[in-house]
Automatic annotation (TrEMBL), chain A:
Residues 1-35 form the signal peptide. The keyword Signal applies. This is Peptide/nickel transport system substrate-binding protein. Pfam families: SBP_bac_5. InterPro entries: Peptide/Ni-bd, SBP_5, SBP_5_dom. Keywords: Signal. Belongs to the bacterial solute-binding protein 5 family. It is found in: Periplasm. Residues 82-441 form the Solute-binding protein family domain.
Automatic annotation (TrEMBL), chain B:
This is Peptide/nickel transport system permease protein. The keyword Protein transport does not apply. It comes from the Bacteria. It is a multi-pass membrane protein. SUPFAM superfamilies: MetI-like. Keywords: Cell membrane, Membrane, Transmembrane, Transmembrane helix, Transport. The chain crosses the membrane at residues 12-33, 102-124, 136-160, 192-210, 246-272, 292-311. The keyword Transport applies. Residues 100-315 form the ABC transmembrane type-1 domain. The lineage of its organism: Bacteria, Pseudomonadati, Pseudomonadota, Alphaproteobacteria, Rhodospirillales.
Length: 536, 326
């Protein structure tokens, strides 16, 4: 047993990927094979404009969507977050969960013609990303040794087992960077940053700042016959109303994430030329919540926070503010990701229960009907969050809590929240396919770090939660991890360190002529090597 | 030395100090906003650790004390170096020069359109004060002046590009169409129509109202009556006698607007997705891209100073009673 390696190999053909897409039109049609022809230009919205396209240096959402076509990771993930081959064609995990061996594809080349080899993987994961990529740094710091066994084999030896290690290799988490360009240079000042070189199906052609980014087909791509598209243009359209018009007119063939304001979604959904899907965000699985500074009164009282959960109607928020997008959240883990626990305490919308809890906590109604006053810093990420702020103010008023709304811009927001200068605010955070990567960081006490955004800014501390999360990360046995995470979720839902709102869904609109766009859990950040256009 | 040369040289010397003072003031102004570029980028990345933010601050030079940063900045300003945008990884001067053609083609065209159209309409309205054509011009002018400019833009897009399909809705060119020569020129022109009209309408309304009001003051004065009594043709009375006397307030406003041509128009550039300086400035504010913001401020202040000087000179040309005095 000890010598036997668990061998995992998955290979998906393009046809299987197409089936996974399963658009209703394709399913209902008789088995007519649609020819995957070459050719076609796709226009995709990118908003806001990324600062640079070198994914190893910048991991903002829009950068990922564009650079995901240029760079690649070793793995990608299907809708159920199972690892799928990309630059690694197979991989093995030792039974003790400490040694991971990846076999690389042999014919991949960088856009400048140099071969992609194990040296690039070792350089990326042990040197460059350790310097430039906060998420990768946290993962690869667990490695004791990263070595190339031969040109196409890489072995990671971990200091101790790390449960989510295999979840950390998609293109934005660990983009493979060219060693021959970056090794020994000042990464951020490298002149090659203006012309990104990756292994992906599309090559960088031109960037007219403020207007568009033009990618063209990589004719030397390592998957034979792919990609199908000739060009992809990423178009910068800063105004939300103009973006909706661009979809209606067919000027752009794809939008993603927050490109379309929620109130425009019902209208665009009914257009004949586009199809909407909410799939392809499983890896990010964003969860929104009211972030609560538990250092401040009355928010330090668990009963007060529980009262908030009862006072706020999450179904109303989903239906009326997000126009049906998303699911009311039940706790800290998004139900589409791994290790979700459904059996937690339920907080129904019940203002009476909320008032009872507030009474019990000693917040009696004053002569003006007010029990307490708190401030809510509205997240400056668009119209929808402003409306949410107005709703929360109203809902809390009903149970006698007076909420003052504060506004700021994104720099001010990050500055205040990361320095704990707030009572309540909104936030939404990606879960990155595993609680150890995207969930625990919000709740464990050793991540209470002033000045760092997306840390435990609430100041929530519970030693038992700390222990459970730490233990769950240190094993790669799924059953054991599930038990630990379930226990942690039950405690968190009882403690309400944040008031969870929605498991968010984003609408992706894709022109019906373009097939195979959304095939994996990273959706729009996928390489698009199998996307093709049906010509009429 | 002729008086005019003394006037200009003295004004220019003063201008240098004004611009330097503005630069210092701007520096403190942009740093007064909460947060910094490192915080913004950490927020955008959706994940961060302390090292990430610290690295960025170091790279941007934000770990130095503020007075030291000011010293570095002013040292560059006096060498006419606008600095480097670390966020965009390009020198600020290059960024500005990339955006300038788009902005100028938008603002200059609409400026000229607004000025000519506004003065013509204002004159027409004033000379026919009280008639239906005066009322019509006044009502349209007032509406154009009072309606939010982005709303007009969106409505024009809805009408002319969504419903009628005559004109492109946004951008500066048909991306990927591969036009060359004349076809490319026409394509760019078509893309300019809606934004220029939207922006032009607003200023045209301003000039119309100004011209009308000011002509109404002048047209009944004695010298106009004299001109009429002499039997001069009406067009000559209007253009030489009335308009020349009534135009000064229009020149003041035009000089003021001309100073801001280079700043672009944030709203128009946003609605029509034009990569101009207005949007660059707006995004720089949100991203706390200090260098870019300071560069735009500096450039704008230089242009404003120059146009103020030009306006003063034009005054004396149009109205010889005004003398340039050092």
């Amino acid at each position: 047993m000890s010598n036997r390696l668990r061998y995992i190999r998955q290979s998906l053909t393009a046809a299987a990927l197409a089936a996974a897409l399963a658009t209703p039109a394709l399913l209902s049609a008789p088995t007519v094979a649609v020819a995957q022809e070459r050719g076609g230009t796709m226009n995709i919205i990118v908003q806001p404009e990324p600062p640079i396209l070198v994914l190893g240096l910048n991991q903002q959402g829009p950068t990922q969507t564009v650079a995901g076509k240029i760079y690649q990771g070793l793995l990608t993930y299907d809708f159920n977050l199972k690892p799928q081959p990309e630059l690694a064609e197979s991989w093995e995990v030792s039974p003790d969960g400490k040694v991971y061996t990846f076999k690389l594809v042999k014919n991949a080349k960088w856009h400048d013609g140099k071969p992609f080899t194990a040296a690039d993987v070792v350089f990326s994961t042990s040197k460059m990303l350790m310097e430039t990529h906060p998420r990768a740094r946290a993962v690869f710091a667990k490695a004791e040794k990263i070595e190339a066994l031969d040109d196409y084999t890489v072995r990671f030896t971990l200091k101790e087992p790390f449960g989510p290690f295999l979840q950390s290799f998609e293109v934005s988490s660990a983009p493979m960077m060219p060693k021959h360009i970056y090794d020994g240079s000042d990464y951020k000042a490298n002149p090659a940053n203006a012309t990104p070189i990756g292994t992906g199906p599309f090559k960088f052609k031109e960037w007219v700042k403020g207007s568009y980014i033009h990618l063209v087909r990589n004719d030397d791509y390592w998957k034979a016959g792919k990609p199908y598209l000739d060009d992809i243009y990423f178009r910068v359209i800063p105004d939300a109303a103009s973006r909706a018009v661009a979809v209606e007119q067919g000027t752009v063939q794809q939008t993603q994430f927050n490109d379309i304001e929620t109130f425009d979604v019902p209208r665009l959904k009914s257009l004949p030329n586009v199809e909407m899907t909410t799939k392809g965000y499983e890896f990010f699985a964003p969860l929104s919540w009211i972030e609560i500074n538990t250092r401040n009164k009355p928010l330090d009282d668990k009963r007060f926070r529980q009262a908030m959960m009862h006072a706020i109607d999450r179904k109303f928020i989903r239906d009326k503010i997000w126009f049906g997008l998303g699911r009311p959240a039940t706790g800290p883990v998004n139900s589409v990701t791994r290790f979700y626990e459904p059996g937690v305490k339920k907080y129904d919308f019940d203002p009476k229960k909320a008032e009872a809890l507030l009474e019990e906590a000693g917040y009696k109604k004053g002569s003006d009907g007010t029990r307490a006053k708190v401030k809510l810093l509205v997240m400056p990420y668009g119209e929808t969050w402003t409306r949410l702020g107005e709703y929360v103010k109203q809902a809390m008023k009903r149970v006698g809590v007076d909420v003052t709304l504060e506004t700021t811009d994104s720099a001010g927001w990050v500055n205040r929240v990361s320095n704990w200068d707030y009572d309540m605010t909104f936030n939404f955070v990606y879960q990155y396919g595993d609680p150890a990567l995207g969930v625990s960081r919000t709740y464990v006490s050793d991540n209470i770090r002033k000045g760092v955004m997306f840390s435990n800014t609430m100041g929530y501390t519970n030693p038992e939660v700390d222990r459970l999360f730490a233990q769950a990360a240190q094993t790669n046995k799924d059953e054991e991890r599930q038990q630990l995470y379930s226990a942690a979720q039950k405690i968190l839902v009882e403690d309400v360190p944040v008031a969870w709102l929605l498991e968010m869904e984003f609408p992706t609109f894709v022109d019906k002529r373009f097939k195979n766009a959304i095939t994996t859990a990273i959706g729009v950040n996928e390489s698009y090597d199998s996307v093709y256009m049906v010509k009429k | 030395m002729p008086r005019i040369a003394v006037f200009i040289s003295q004004r220019l010397v003063k201008a240098v100090f004004v611009v330097l003072a503005i630069a210092v003031f701007n520096f403190f102004l942009v740093h007064a906003a909460p947060g910094d570029p490192a915080a913004v980028m950490a927020g955008e990345a959706g994940a961060a650790d302390a090292k990430f933010v610290e690295q960025l601050r170091q790279q941007f030079g934000l770990d130095r004390p503020l007075y030291e940063q000011l010293g570095t900045y002013m040292g560059k300003v006096v060498q006419a170096d606008l600095g480097y945008s670390y966020r965009q990884q390009r020198p600020v001067f290059d960024l500005l020069m990339d955006r300038l053609p788009v902005t100028l083609s938008l603002t200059l065209t609409s400026f000229v359109l607004a000025l000519i159209g506004g003065v013509a309409l204002g004159t027409l309205a004033a000379m026919r004060a009280g008639t239906w054509s005066d009322t019509a011009i006044t009502v349209v002018g007032l509406t154009a002046y009072a309606t939010p400019i982005f709303w007009i833009g969106l409505m024009l897009i809805l009408l002319f590009s969504v419903n009628l399909g005559w004109l492109p809705a946004f951008g500066t060119e048909s991306i990927g169409a591969g036009y060359t020569g004349w076809a490319a020129f026409v394509d760019r022109l078509e893309h300019l129509v809606l934004p220029v009209v939207t922006l032009g309408l607003f200023y045209m309304a301003v000039y119309t109202r100004l011209t009308r009001a000011s002509i109404l003051e002048v047209r009944d004065m004695d010298f106009v009556k004299t001109a009429r009594a002499k039997g001069l043709p009406e067009w000559r009375i209007v253009s030489v006698h009335i308009l020349r006397n009534a135009i000064l307030p229009v020149i003041t406003v035009a000089g003021f607007q001309a100073g801001h041509l280079i700043g672009g128009s944030i709203l128009i550039e946003t609605v029509f997705a034009l990569p101009g300086i207005g949007r660059l400035a707006f995004e720089a504010v949100l991203q706390r891209d200090y260098q870019v913001l300071l560069g735009i401020f500096l450039l704008t202040s230089v242009v404003v100073v120059i146009f103020n000087l030009l306006t003063d000179l034009i005054y004396s040309l149009v109205d010889p009673r005004i003398e340039v005095a050092p």
